[in-house]
Amino acid sequence: MILSTYNINGVNGRIEILLKWLKERSPDVVCLQEIKCQDKDFPAKKLKEAGYFAIWQGQKSWNGVAILSKTEIKETKRGLPGDPADDHSRYIEAFIGGLIIGCIYLPNGNPAPGPKFEYKLKWLKRLTAHSKKLLSFGIPTILIGDYNVIPTDLDLYNPDRFRDNALFFPESKKAYKKLLALGWTDAIRTLYPDEIIYTFYDYLRNAFGRNAGLRLDHFLLSPDLSDKLIDGGVDKHVRGWQGASDHCPVWIEIQPTK
């Protein structure tokens, strides 16, 4: 079973890129972030023609998350619990093929310090609380998406350039580590414990050409899935396609749960 994450950075503007990559990789489940469209404008018909069911939570111009699947999707939650006033479209959850799949677009937090960073930390705290509840269900679960957290120095090309960036603040890394400590496995880093792996390349300063990247897109596996992880990687070449998102599609393969 292949599961993927892709911050598409505008699903309608990049639908042809998405469809091309779906045909190439043929993942079973895909979590999309930054779809940047209202619910009524989501390209569900084109995706269905490509063989994918979809659920989504849109937002005009900003944010937005979606889950695609080759098999039918049972939506279990939209919106991260813990703050009824939070109207950002950043979390959607579903039951697919014996798995709970949470699709995440965590706040960036910049400029920091400031209100946006405080929102990021509060969101991470809410995610940690919700993930603890998910673990209590005893159902295999994967939290997939753009976490906007660079966990360690190995996960970026130049740590000194990011000391003042919310993605790499000590508080962000500490919160991510606290989340992992509940029992979650960072799938990509587990597969490649010592290798340089990047999932994001800025559009500026020829970042892609220089391999000056960041690892922002993560798969967190519940303990009952840690021994089912088979493979994974980054489809880096997609970042080089004309008009592509600044994120690369990332994927893992796990043994079927049933």
UniProtKB/TrEMBL annotation:
One of its GO terms (molecular function) is double-stranded DNA 3'-5' DNA exonuclease activity. Its cofactor is Mg(2+); Mn(2+). It is an enzyme of class 3 (hydrolase). Mg(2+) binds at residues 7, 34, 146, 148, 246-247. The record marks 148 as: Transition state stabilizer. Probably binds two magnesium or manganese ions per subunit. InterPro entries: AP_endonuc_1, AP_endonuclease_F1_BS, AP_endonuclease_F1_CS, Endo/exonu/phosph_ase_sf, Endo/exonuclease/phosphatase, ExoIII-like. The record marks 217 as: Important for catalytic activity. It holds the Pfam family Exo_endo_phos. Residues 5-247 form the Endonuclease/exonuclease/phosphatase domain. One of its GO terms (biological process) is DNA repair. Its EC number is 3.1.11.2. Keywords: Hydrolase, Magnesium, Manganese, Metal-binding. The active site is at residues 105, 146, 247. The record marks 247 as: Interaction with DNA substrate. Belongs to the DNA repair enzymes AP/ExoA family. PANTHER family: EXODEOXYRIBONUCLEASE III (PTHR43250). This is Exodeoxyribonuclease III. It comes from Pedobacter chinensis. The gene is xth.
